[in-house]
Amino acid sequence: MVKLQIITSDDWPLWQEIRVAALTEAPHAFRSRLADWHRGGQEQWRARLAIPGSYNVVALRGSLPVGMVRGIPGDGETSELRSLWVSPEARGDGVGDRLIEAVTTWALRSDSTTLKLAVIPGNEPAIALYQRHGFVATEEPGDLLPGGVTREQVLAKRLR
Known about the structure:
The protein is 29% helix and 34% strand. It is of the alpha+beta class. Keywords: Acyltransferase, Transferase.
């Protein structure tokens, strides 16, 4: 049984544990690199979780973290889904679906009309998951990836 837990900046050790696991297991899936997170210490981890209006969720199987996602408020009409990751042992169990649904519900409660995200091009399992939840590619240019050649692919879905 997987339980979703909303976390705050006080829960930074749990967030650190799962984020390090995500960046270690799937470095190809994130713009951030593990090395980026070893410099800032506790304050960097706390700050990530303390963004005003953010929604930070960890999926737990017992006490073991098996997934994570963030919702970040945008411009008032658009919110962002970020940092989605599910551990290999929990993939295929609907954890990713539940995490996306949790952020979608949060965005709706926040009166957002659009939920957007960025994905690394070629991450077909993630793209398929997002498409199942109604996300479609946009013309918006994503952030430049390390190396300076490729950009993230931006997907969005209308909420209202």
